């Protein structure tokens, strides 16, 4: 005996509101608000505007790198050399400074070094079709190695006073130049990724590079541009960090590649490529910055914070797998 | 395929010999038996680590946490030694091996059971393991005078005119060479890396094989951890910082394909010896040790470009030329 059954097929899989509520970005936003509230509760000094402004330095420079790195990861590649590019840029700026370069020349040299390093990575990955993991492990040693050859165990100090503005200057009240740079970069990268045809090709390559090539996308050129961009943003971060610290050692920014990758992955960028949004990376930057600052106010040593970053990276990737598994078990 | 592989090892031997010969032209003292024995002894730890790393890379994974595992196992052994000086050294070595095995198993479990990309897992555990060293040691150093003499003596002890450290490396080389060639699990590493889908159909558990590879890598890192700390007689958080890059470099130079499935024990050993020779030659030819990082970076890039040339497949033709079609 069969009865007629009425089935409704929704014209959309998920409603707009539902999709928004279930999105990774919403979850991140809630987490960010929670961490903000915990910080307010844990330390009476947290809510001071100048303190918050100081806290922003914990993520602005890393965020600049993470935006570009996010695009590289979406395209299915990875760049582990970002921190070494930063070190080399900073070292060459210091080298130029000892030879009498002025503020603008220093900035130019920092950015150019980043671009050249990015071009080297891009050429090796897209020109010679080598796997980006090993290539950037290699350039990671090479770039920092050059910094060590130039500087050894010494340090560059005595940057021009004017140069300090990039890392220590304020545009208006507590709004630092770096924070403005961070916001502008976030907007530019969001537009590039989500509102241009170039951005669409990045997703296409990340989802299926072969299919992308067969549909006429110049995969190699896009990848080259992405590595170039990452180099440039690392150079920009080098300008900011060097200016903020006022000195350069070859070990500057050691381990930042881990933090930049974590920021991108925490922001919902799929480590296997093909999906993720810039908005998530912005939120992830805020979360990591606030946690680092909160730990700092509570006198937690730096290495414990790096445990936290490592755990975060693993948890963020493990959690979706685990929840999916639990949900599937419930269904069965 | 084997003929190409053989060529790579022959090439490496030739390159290393030429390098030694060139150095010998200016500095004859570098080629005395004593000095060359030293090169091998200095490279022993790198060889042990590279053989573990190689098993992982064969299965299409990578272990960036080897140096951190080394430091953690070494610190555990050193702390135990300074707290309980009467424990026999063999127990401490076992503890170091066990610590390494557990660290490797944690990596392997995440790759096996959670399907997580190995690069992310080991990038994460790399900082976590270092952080744990800080937590257990409180950031303090364990210095030579806090370790017992027996603990420090093992790697330097002489056995048939060779230091135990070198002997251990030779033993590990022999075991790995036999295991990878003759054991079913050894062959499975190649199968999993060469074609994971095909491996499943031949009845190989891909995840489990990768897990075993990580445990091997961890255990060897544990052994290396004891040897490192006993040899240099000091343990602290940043020991062997960045050494994982040298280990990966040794593998890549040795012709082990980062895409998995290709590589031999002798390749990994020769790759390590190549780096070891450079490291030992730099001070002899009066080049600052600060050059070393850049040199190994350059060598990694050259080696990977070289490997890719050997493995390159031709593209597919998707559009025939007009004349052919017409």
Task: Tell me the distance between the termini of chain A.
Answer: 27 Å
Assess the beta-strand content of chain B as a share of residues.
under 5%
Q: What strand order characterises the main sheet of chain A?
A: 1-4
For this structure, the CATH topology of chain A is ABC transporter involved in vitamin B12 uptake, BtuC
* Tally of structural domains of chain A: 1
The pair of chains with the biggest contact is: A-B, 45 and 45 residues
Largest beta sheet: strand ordering of chain B: 1-2
Quaternary structure: heterodimer
Order of helices and strands of chain A: HHHHHHEHEEHHHHEHHH
CATH architecture of chain A: Orthogonal Bundle
Structural classification of chain B? mainly alpha
The major beta sheet of chain B can be summarized as:
2 strands, antiparallel
Q: Can you give the helix content of chain B as a percent range?
A: over 70%
Radius of gyration of chain A equals 22 Å
Q: Please provide the count of β strands of chain A.
A: 4
């Amino acid at each position: 005996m069969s009865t007629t059954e009425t089935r409704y097929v929704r014209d959309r899989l998920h409603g707009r509101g539902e999709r928004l509520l279930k999105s990774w970005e919403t979850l991140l936003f809630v987490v960010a608000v929670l961490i903000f509230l915990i910080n307010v509760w844990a330390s009476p000094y947290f809510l001071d505007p100048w303190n918050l402004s100081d806290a922003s330095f914990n993520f602005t420079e890393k965020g600049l790198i993470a935006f570009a790195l996010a695009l590289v990861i979406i395209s299915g590649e990875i760049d582990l050399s970002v921190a070494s590019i930063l070190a080399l840029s900073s070292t060459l700026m210091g080298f130029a400074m000892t030879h009498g370069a002025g503020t603008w020349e220093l900035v130019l040299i920092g950015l150019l070094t980043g671009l050249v390093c990015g071009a080297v990575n891009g050429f090796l990955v897209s020109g010679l079709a080598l796997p980006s993991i090993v290539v950037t492990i290699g350039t990671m040693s090479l770039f920092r190695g050059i910094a060590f050859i130039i500087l050894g165990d010494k340090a560059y100090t005595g940057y021009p006073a004017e140069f300090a503005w990039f890392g220590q200057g304020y545009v208006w009240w507590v709004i630092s130049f770096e924070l403005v740079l961070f916001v502008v970069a976030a907007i530019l990268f969001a537009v590039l990724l989500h509102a241009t045809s170039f951005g669409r090709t990045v997703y296409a390559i990340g989802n299926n590079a072969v299919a992308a090539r067969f549909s006429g996308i110049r995969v190699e050129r896009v990848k080259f541009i992405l590595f170039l961009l990452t180099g440039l943003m690392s150079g920009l971060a080098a300008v900011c960090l060097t200016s903020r610290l006022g000195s350069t050692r070859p070990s500057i920014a050691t381990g930042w590649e881990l933090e930049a990758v974590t920021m991108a992955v925490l922001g919902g960028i799929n480590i296997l490529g093909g999906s993720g949004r810039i908005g998530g990376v912005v939120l992830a930057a805020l979360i990591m910055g606030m946690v680092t600052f909160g730990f700092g106010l509570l006198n937690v040593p730096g290495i414990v914070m790096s445990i936290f970053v490592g755990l975060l990276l693993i948890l963020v990737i493990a959690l979706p797998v685990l929840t999916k598994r639990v949900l599937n078990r419930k269904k069965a | 395929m084997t003929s190409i592989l053989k060529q790579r090892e022959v090439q490496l031997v030739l390159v290393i010999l030429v390098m030694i010969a060139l150095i010998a032209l200016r500095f004859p003292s570098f080629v005395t038996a004593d000095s060359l024995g030293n090169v091998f002894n200095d490279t022993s730890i790198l060889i042990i680590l590279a053989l573990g790393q190689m098993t992982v890379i064969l299965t299409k994974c990578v272990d960036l946490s080897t140096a951190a595992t080394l430091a953690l196992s070494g610190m555990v052994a050193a702390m135990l030694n300074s707290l309980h000086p009467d424990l026999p050294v063999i127990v401490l070595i076992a503890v170091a091996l066990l610590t390494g095995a557990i660290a490797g198993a944690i990596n392997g479990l995440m790759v096996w059971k959670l399907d997580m990309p190995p690069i992310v897992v080991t990038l994460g555990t790399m900082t976590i393991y270092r952080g744990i060293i800080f937590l257990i040691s409180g950031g303090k150093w364990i210095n030579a005078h806090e370790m017992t003499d027996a603990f420090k003596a093992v790697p330097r002890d002489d056995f048939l005119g060779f230091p135990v450290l070198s002997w251990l490396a030779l033993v590990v080389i022999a075991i790995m060479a036999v295991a990878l060639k003759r054991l079913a699990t050894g062959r499975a590493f190649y199968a999993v890396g060469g074609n994971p889908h095909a491996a499943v159909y031949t009845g190989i558990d891909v995840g489990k094989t990768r897990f075993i590879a990580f445990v091997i890598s961890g255990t060897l890192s544990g052994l290396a951890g004891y040897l490192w700390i006993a040899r240099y007689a000091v343990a602290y958080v940043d020991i062997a910082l960045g050494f994982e890059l040298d280990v990966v470099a040794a593998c890549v130079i040795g012709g082990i394909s980062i895409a998995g499935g290709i590589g031999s024990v002798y390749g990994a050993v020769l790759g390590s010896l190549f780096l070891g020779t450079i490291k030992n030659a730099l001070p002899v030819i009066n080049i600052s040790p600060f050059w070393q990082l850049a040199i190994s970076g350059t060598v990694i890039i050259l080696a990977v470009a070289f490997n890719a040339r050997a493995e390159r497949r031709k593209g597919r033709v998707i559009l025939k030329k007009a004349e052919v079609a017409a």
